[in-house]
Design brief:
Blueprint lengths: L1 E6 L10 H10 L2 E6 L3 H12 L5 E5 L31 H7 L5 E10 L7 H25 L3 E6 L2 H12 L6 E3 L6 H9 L3 E4 L9 H6 L5 E3 L20 H12 L3 H16 L2
Helix pairs in contact: 8-9
The structure holds zinc ion.
Length: 275
C-alpha cells in the first residue's frame, strides 16, 4: 500500500472526474490526503473524504498565497478553483468547526511563500509579518486539536526554521515539510525538530539526490501534489496513483528495494496522520 500524503483531487482540475481518479487510486491500494488551500477547497476535501469509509482523508488550512494581505496582486490558478481566487483572512473558528470531521487528519497546507512578495522593503516586511501571523494562528489550531501540520515553504526556509524554533519552544509540534527542495543543512534542522520531509515529482526536475540519499528512511513521506508536478515517465495532469513513480525514483537513489521504501514510508504516514 502507498499513501499520497499531499494530493489536491479537491481542486478544479478534477471537477469532472474526481470520483474516478479516487476509485483508480483505491483499486491500486493507494490512499490519499486531499489538501485544502483556502476555506472552499478545504471544505471540499472534507466532503470528499466523508464519502469513503477509508483511504481518503483531508487536511484543511489557508495557504499563504491565498492570504489577504492587500500588498500584492495574486495570480489565479484555474487548475485550483473555478472562479477567481478570493483572498481570505483566516477565520480560526470556521476552520476549527470544519476540523470536527474525523476525516481531517492535518492542518495544511500552511506556511510561508515569498515568491510574489512586494518590491518595496517596507511592504515586503509587512507581507512577511502577515504570513507569519496567520501561520502562527494555524499552528495554534493544530496544537489545540492535536493534529500535525503540512507546511508549504517557497523561498523562505531560513525564516520558516526561525519561526518554528520560536513556536516549538512551548511544546512539540508534529508535521511535514511538503515538497521539500531545501539543502541538506536545512533538512537536518527540520528533522531535529521532529518534522518529516515530503518528496514528489519535483525530484525529476530538480536534483535532490543528495538530500534524498542522506535522509533517514523513517523521515520520508511520499506525495504527488497533484494536479501539479507530474513525475516521469507520465505527462499531463498528475494524480495519486503516480506516487509509485516518486517511490521508484527514491528507492533507486537510496539503493534499496521499492518494497522496503514503500513499506516504511507508508508506516511513517500512518503514524503521523493516525490513519
Ligand atoms: Zn499542494
Amino acid at each position: 500500500m502507498l499513501i499520497d500524503t499531499h494530493a489536491h483531487v479537491n481542486f478544479n482540475a478534477y471537477k469532472n472526474d474526481s470520483e474516478e481518479v479516487i476509485r483508480r487510486a483505491l483499486a491500486e491500494n493507494v490512499w490519499m490526503i486531499n489538501i485544502g488551500s483556502q476555506y472552499s477547497t478545504s471544505k471540499r476535501a472534507v466532503e470528499m473524504a466523508e464519502k469513503y469509509e477509508k483511504g481518503v482523508y483531508a487536511a484543511i488550512g489557508l495557504h499563504p498565497i491565498h492570504l489577504e494581505t492587500g500588498l500584492v496582486k495574486m495570480k489565479n490558478d484555474i487548475e485550483e478553483i473555478q472562479f477567481p481566487t478570493i483572498e481570505e483572512s483566516f477565520d480560526y473558528e470556521q476552520y476549527k468547526k470544519l476540523a470536527q470531521s474525523p476525516k481531517v487528519v492535518a492542518i495544511g497546507e500552511i506556511g510561508l511563500d515569498y515568491y510574489w512578495k512586494p518590491k518595496s522593503k517596507t511592504k515586503a516586511g509587512l507581507f512577511k509579518e502577515k504570513q507569519a501571523g496567520v501561520l502562527f494562528q494555524q499552528i495554534d489550531l493544530a496544537k489545540e486539536l492535536d493534529l500535525p501540520v503540512l507546511l508549504h515553504c517557497r523561498m523562505a526556509h531560513d525564516n520558516l526554521l526561525q519561526l518554528l524554533k520560536y513556536k516549538l519552544k512551548a511544546n512539540k509540534l508534529k508535521g511535514t515539510i511538503h515538497c521539500f527542495t531545501g539543502s541538506w543543512e536545512q533538512a537536518q534542522k527540520y528533522m531535529d525538530m521532529g518534522f518529516y520531509l515530503g518528496f514528489n515529482g519535483i525530484i525529476f526536475k530538480m536534483n535532490l539526490d543528495d538530500v534524498i540519499s542522506k535522509a533517514p528512511l523513517d523521515k520520508i513521506l511520499l506525495e504527488t501534489d497533484c494536479p501539479y508536478l507530474t513525475p516521469l515517465p507520465m505527462e499531463g495532469r498528475n494524480e495519486p496513483i503516480y506516487v509509485k513513480y516518486v517511490a521508484e525514483k527514491i528507492a533507486k537513489i537510496k539503493n534499496i528495494s521499492y518494497e522496503e521504501l514503500t513499506e516504511i514510508s507508508t508506516q511513517n504516514a500512518q503514524k503521523l496522520f493516525k490513519i
